[in-house]
């Protein structure tokens, strides 16, 4: 044990190996950057709306109905004279709120279920996954309609419905990620050390699938936004007068010929949010890809 | 073999009589230099080993020769192969694909990834034959392929030709890869750790096959590995790489019995599992290999060398045994022990003495 | 010291392959066939075999990470084969494993100090900064290594981390599964020295598995040779190496290229002939396996 571990001749302590064979630097890849910008826009709009909006979005101004673009009303007004731009800003709140709650429910329920299925005995895993499949059979829309019928339509029922409907995707993902982790040698080492299964699931599986879950969350966020918009459009989501991009779309339907801008801007807002989260998810996935890890 | 180094390079005509001629090869990625100043040549039919550990740059050298460097990794210098009238460095993909499998062939470490899993092995051999126009049609190419498989001693070549890679064992797969490589009688065969993934009994047969394969065809061989014993078993001369540079070169016998560079000595000592010191421990090289591209300036080995001094901050000149003994220069020696073939890059070489 | 610390009796491990046809029964893989041997306190026991020999499977069963299909394994007089996980505490406290793959055997998301301390935590023993520092020092790693992550270290250093982890709870038996196979030659020498030093310093019993006969010869005093799931030879190191009895062992010894022999003129052709001359094994049904 006499070898000198510290490098001689003033080269300093061992540094992390540089990414010599990494194909390209994916810390700031285009998807991540663009997605990040778009998502920041949406978040920024929502935050801004708490502090300031040009007009009160729910204030009816009969005199100014269907006004066009102007210095007063940046994006015009709708058929009730409400400012479109203000509605968009406040609508961002709803959008984000739905995304956060829905994805939150899906992850908090789905991930532990998936990990449990991954670390457990074969039979437990099978039962859990079959229940999962059962849940998978219910599309979010159907579930939202059912909830709306029982509890009355609202943002809350929409969020919960979307969240529950997304649980199976997270459970599947968490399980397959966990299975991969379980086949590693460091899990064998943990078992040899005497660790129990639950401890292995929490201490080893969870951190190692975190990347996957984050990426999935991004994508699920995008889907949740679309789902909420669809539900609001159909009348099962956010109740008036709370601004919602989906409902704005629905209300603009009858005026498509005369005032297409009323459909355009909410549509663009939805597209920006969905695209942003999707790209962010893609960018994060590339960032976390273990195959592109530093090789020595 | 000619002398590597920036100054005093004897000017051999590119691919003059050589099967392979490499000059000033440099591989970089971004600002990191992974391989520097690599120059050597292979005479037709010569068998040369390239020894190095992880981070030495030996595999990158092989990839650079074939034009198979990954994205973001760039090669400079000159590589000439007999039969190809252009420099391989900087050649277009189109030009390179005419050379690969024809004048220059390669055997990699993992046979499973080198073979197409959904294609019968006989077809894979026939494909390379047909691609370079050595047979007029499919039928004759298939016949030639079966013949190749027989030459690499696959049992029942006709049936083997119809097998898929996953139906063969590892050793058999590697034989198929060798058959593909040698099918068109290349001028140069590159082998990068071809037997490392094989069992030792299988390895012995594989080495025999490689040796007979190249001697039959007069193919020059560049055998890359970290295993000194394997190089000594197959090759006539050896190049020792460390830190992206060739630090010693010469005949296998000379380098392994009378090493001049301290790293070569260290490598020989640590591989020798039968010789331990007084306390029963193996002799080691102190320290660890620095990260790729982060080798010390000047002599790449100086931060681990007991003999290092202030002078070693300067890049050591290549010393050929010829320059040292002041003998008359023979630029293309016929005998492998020839003076110009032997050299090293060190300011404080080990004394020339016979090792017992 | 007459009672063996590990006793293996007639162990079989058979796997069922998934069905490929509805009519025929699924094929079975006999990874380990009827293996029996003893390991005594303080022995340095080497287990040699090529791929498909069953040595890795056997090692897992010794560490109770897998259970035999039939046969028994006793650790310190107590049966450990087929014992449920919750009753394996005493085995886990006294037998630890160092694995082959320096990349895969360390959790990439855990800091080194947590990796090294894991057995302590799992066994509910106190974990202190001093103990961690002591362990890191014992394997030749710098003190600040504890704060870093595995990917910041080289292969040899990661194996040191693995060794430190295995030694953290002061086991009596250290099982090393191909610990140096993935390492460069010069690093291999360092790690082998480290292992032999530690085995001596802590009076450990060592079970060393490798495909490399030369490595096992250097480290161990007893060698067992496995081939296709069977134990074909067992004896003191020098005897197995110099006077092998089983034809497979003879082939194995003949097939290893050595620098000495190569420089003496044993080229590839001669090597291959020597392997053939060592004799074919009548029980040999399969050829060339990929490691």
Topology readout:
The complex is a heterotrimer of chains A (296), B (356) and C (291).
Chain A: H1 30-51, H2 84-119, H3 122-136, H4 140-151, H5 155-182, H6 185-193, H7 197-234, H8 245-252, H9 261-288
Helix pairs in contact in A: 1-2, 1-9, 2-3, 2-5, 2-7, 3-5, 4-5, 5-7, 7-8, 7-9, 8-9
Chain B: E1 20-29, E2 32-42, E3 47-51, H1 58-66, E4 74-81, H2 93-99, E5 104-107, H3 111-114, H4 121-131, H5 138-151, H6 157-161, H7 170-182, E6 188-192, H8 200-217, E7 220-225, H9 228-234, E8 237-242, E9 245-251, H10 252-257, H11 262-271, E10 318-320, H12 321-325, E11 343-345
Parallel strand pairs in B: 3-7, 3-8, 5-6, 6-7
Antiparallel strand pairs in B: 1-2, 1-4, 8-9, 9-11, 10-11
Chain C: E1 6-16, E2 28-39, E3 44-49, H1 55-62, E4 70-75, E5 78-79, H2 89-94, E6 95-98, H3 112-122, H4 129-138, H5 155-167, E7 173-177, H6 185-201, E8 205-210, H7 213-219, E9 222-227, E10 230-236, H8 237-242, H9 247-255, H10 259-263, H11 268-277
Parallel strand pairs in C: 3-8, 3-9, 6-7, 7-8
Antiparallel strand pairs in C: 1-2, 1-4, 4-5, 9-10
Q: Characteristics of this structure?
A:
heterotrimer, A: 296 residues, mainly alpha, MetI-like fold, 9 helices, elongated, disordered N terminus, disordered C terminus, C: 291 residues, alpha/beta, Rossmann fold, 2 domains, 6-stranded mixed sheet, 4-stranded antiparallel sheet, 11 helices, globular
How is this structure best described in words?
The complex is a heterotrimer of chains A (296), B (356) and C (291). Chain A contains 9 helices and no strands. Chain A has 296 residues and is an all-alpha fold. In chain A, helix 2 packs parallel to helix 5 and helix 7 (197-234) runs parallel beside helix 8 (245-252). Chain A is elongated and about 75 Å long. Chain A starts with 29 loop residues before the first helix and ends in an 8-residue tail after the last helix. Chain B has an 8-stranded mixed sheet with strand order 5-6-7-3-8-9-11-10, with helices on both faces. A 3-stranded antiparallel sheet of chain B has the order 2-1-4, with helices on one face. With 356 residues, chain B is an alpha/beta fold. Chain B folds into 2 domains: 1-103 and 186-356, 3-Layer(aba) Sandwich (Rossmann fold); 114-185, no CATH class. The longest helix of chain B is centred in the middle third of the chain and has 18 residues, at 200-217. In chain B, strand 1 and strand 2 (32-42) form a beta hairpin. Chain C is α/β, with parallel strands linked by helices and 291 residues long. Chain C folds into 2 domains: 6-243, Rossmann fold (3-Layer(aba) Sandwich), CATH 3.40.50; 244-282, no CATH class. Chain C has 11 helices and 10 strands. The two termini of chain C are 37 Å apart. Classes of the chains: A mainly alpha (296), B alpha/beta (356), C alpha/beta (291). Chains B and C meet through helix 7, helix 8, helix 9, helix 10 and helix 11 of B and helix 5, helix 6, helix 7, helix 9 and helix 10 of C.
